[in-house]
Amino acid sequence: MKNNPFLTVILLFCIQVLLIKYLDYIDFNVKIGEGLFLAFVCFFIPVISLILNGFMGESRYKKSFRYFTFFIIIISLLAFVALSYLGALGKAYQH
Questions:
Q1: Exposed, middle or buried, 28 (CB in 10 Å: 0-12/13-18/19+)?
Q2: Residue 30 — pLDDT band, cuts 50, 70, 90?
Q3: How far apart are the first and last CA of the chain?
């Protein structure tokens, strides 16, 4: 398991989802700005994936994990843009 970076990223994603659900359940409000929180949520896993990709030595997963990292980065950028747009649209309809 320690040599498989895919499992690490998938487990980190699951932990992040559970943490977000738990913080929403306990109504934990931090006044750091909504955009910063959204950026943290969208880009936490890709940053960890880039770090793992940089420090991974010779492994049989290196090439496929590099492609997986690029895929995660593209998906997170699209998710950030879409969620930012929907959040701005929701604020516009509130006024």
A1: exposed
A2: low
A3: 51
**pLDDT, tens digit (0-9, with 9 covering 90-100), for 31-50:** 556 667 778 888 888 888 88
Neighbours of 69 (CB within 10 A): 21
Domain ranges of the chain: 5-94
Question: Which residues, 6+ apart, have CB-to-CB distance to 49 below 8 Å?
Answer: 5, 9, 65, 68, 69, 72, 73
Gap between the Cα atoms of 34 and 86, Å rounded: 13
Q: How far apart are CA 95 and CA 88, in angstroms?
A: 11
Average pLDDT over residues 8-24: 82
